[in-house]
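Pipeline run #58 for the internal structure catalog. This entry was flagged by the ingest filter as a single-chain record with no existing model, so it goes straight to prediction. Upstream metadata was stripped on purpose; only the residue string is passed forward. Reviewer on rotation: M.T. Logging verbosity set to normal.
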Amino acid sequence: MVLFVVFIVTIGYIYGKASESGLLFAGIALLLAGTTSIGSYYFSDKLVLATSGAKKIQLKDNPALFRIVENLCIGAGLPMPSVYIIEDESANAFATGRDPKHAVVCVTTGILHKLTKVELEGVIAHELSHVKNYDTRLMAVVAILVGFIAILADFFMRSLWFRDRDSKAGAIFLVIGIVLAILSPIVATLIQLAVSRKREFLADASGVLLTRYPEGLASALEKIALDRVPMRSASNATAHLFIENPFNRKQHTHWFSSLFDTHPPAEERIRILRSM
């Protein structure tokens, strides 16, 4: 995360040199990067829940789900998170929140209807592992920073209209800045997706460590991957949070295509789980 912020400031400095105001541009980049990181730290979970249409439930609303979450939290040594349900027939789930004390576990009605109790336990254990490993906080901040890099690149390209056309200063930085304006959002997104894929593998392993039953999660992933019902309440900004990509569930075999996946291939995750 420190390197990510340094990356943003470096880009800001190059943009600034290209527009003959390097230190000012870098300062603004640092200020905005810090502000957006702090904002995402405290409010990203509320934004995700609001945009997905999730509704908070209590024990009386769904005792079976509530007890599964409660029992797994006891086993993991975690405080009880808030439990939410999304009215959506697509089978999926996610966790969010900046730390275990402010965590949220959310499932769709589709996953409640389509999975057995053991499979649902595997999914909830996976999501609680994201909470315990602080993945929810990490990915929320990364998502905000990726968006900020895209905004910064757009700001730089628009600022070129006001640049002194006769100035020879910063010509090299201008070329580098234009190249970075094109490539930096792509690079930042690839970093985000790579981090997301690694954390999914970690959550799979941590979830199995909690349930001691790899087949539960493996069987759940099989059903979720085969579920072709599109998820209405998800967006590209939140896709990485879910246990499986809510949009494109086709598995890529080409390494270049897989760079743009939010999740590792379901087949690979299942193979690893069944080898435990």
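catalog note: The mean pLDDT is 83.
catalog note: Residues 2-274 form one domain.
status: ready for reviewer M.T.
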